[in-house]
Amino acid sequence: MASFTEAERGHQIVIEGIKDIYRNTVRPIEAATKFDIFHSNMLTDAEFDAAPMVLLVGPYSVGKTSFIKYILGRGFPGERIGPEPTTDRFMAVMYGDQDKTVPGNALTVAP
């Protein structure tokens, strides 16, 4: 197993603490009130361990693309910044070994 840095160990401790709180405090309340019937199923460890997803929405020309570029520290494939609205599509920016663009329709029909 790869060695963890001190920060990664700290993150793992926090995640495990959140899981424990959910399992021991929140989940019993969800079960008693049958929360999963009217809202969503009880959470699993995989949902706590998964990488977070962030959704950016807003009017055109308010800095959504610029914000993503700032977070990444560089540009990304398919970015378009212009004075006029550039809201003709949506994008999913994800981590990978190489930069590439995948058409939206391919993502909707992927198994």
From TrEMBL:
<dbReference type="InterPro" id="IPR031692">
    <property type="entry name" value="EHD_N"/>
</dbReference>
<protein>
    <recommendedName>
        <fullName>Dynamin-type G domain-containing protein</fullName>
    </recommendedName>
</protein>
<dbReference type="InterPro" id="IPR027417">
    <property type="entry name" value="P-loop_NTPase"/>
</dbReference>
<dbReference type="InterPro" id="IPR030381">
    <property type="entry name" value="G_DYNAMIN_dom"/>
</dbReference>
<dbReference type="Pfam" id="PF00350">
    <property type="entry name" value="Dynamin_N"/>
</dbReference>
<feature type="domain" description="Dynamin-type G">
    <location>
        <begin position="48"/>
        <end position="111"/>
    </location>
</feature>
<dbReference type="GO" id="GO:0012505">
    <property type="term" value="C:endomembrane system"/>
</dbReference>
<dbReference type="Pfam" id="PF16880">
    <property type="entry name" value="EHD_N"/>
</dbReference>
<dbReference type="InterPro" id="IPR045063">
    <property type="entry name" value="Dynamin_N"/>
</dbReference>
<dbReference type="InterPro" id="IPR051943">
    <property type="entry name" value="TRAFAC_Dynamin-like_GTPase"/>
</dbReference>
<dbReference type="GO" id="GO:0005525">
    <property type="term" value="F:GTP binding"/>
</dbReference>
<keyword id="KW-0472">Membrane</keyword>
